[in-house]
Queue: 2 jobs
Job 1
Amino acid sequence: MAAISGVGAGAGILVLFYLALVVVSIVAWVRILSKAGYSGWWILIAIVPIVNLVMFLVFAFSTWPIEQQLAAARAQHPGGYGPPPGGWVPPASGYAPPPSAGYPPPMTGYPPPTPSGYPPPAAPYPSPPQQPPTPPASGMA
């Protein structure tokens, strides 16, 4: 009996998770539709099986209300959106170009290069003195 109640509790948690996911999805779609200029109630069209696909294509390829408002604003101000309400004021501190163009003068004080271009190699470690090999002692005499 304990295994059956564990399965029921797991199924209940899964149902609550799916309900929370559906609520968050609906809220997100309502916000997207509202920002596009449509009423959030258009989300209910998703319930109708074939109509939801047709309306998806209509929403995807039609001119959205927000795009119509932007086109009207652009037509009213052809050079842009017009000046700001208080007028444009340049910033107090900004980027200043460098005082002179070109490369800086070469630095002085470097030592002259060695004739080969590289410093001479360091002396290798001294090797131990070589002694002539001694012949092996043989027992025949």
Job 2
Amino acid sequence: MNKKEFSEIISLIQIAYNKQYLKEEIEVMYDLLKDFEYNTLKIAIKRLIATSRYVPNVSQIISEYKQIKRDEGYNKILKARELGNIKTNEELDKAMKWLDKGIVPDWLDKDLQEMPMSENELENLQKEFEEILNN
């Protein structure tokens, strides 16, 4: 993420919480968040704004970001199962366990990155995943 994109992120927080950061605070935050994907980070910030009346700290922002990335991974794993790339329940269970631990083998990561998904597909897969968890 570049500095312009980061300034948009900071602006979201400042406007939503009527908060003005010091220059030093912004520099520290940028140093900690600069390697994160802009679009995912923006979604994380918007979720935090929608659910918390207090200004999020960097740790909360990172936690929300990681949760979004995990959700994306689960959705892609379920899509891979649907497409036949993951053939057995054992393979599905292993993939889910790796993702839970934050470990994604290179072969699985490559397969997941090559799978395009529309917003509708993501929503449908999220519903399917929730149904699987609830059963």
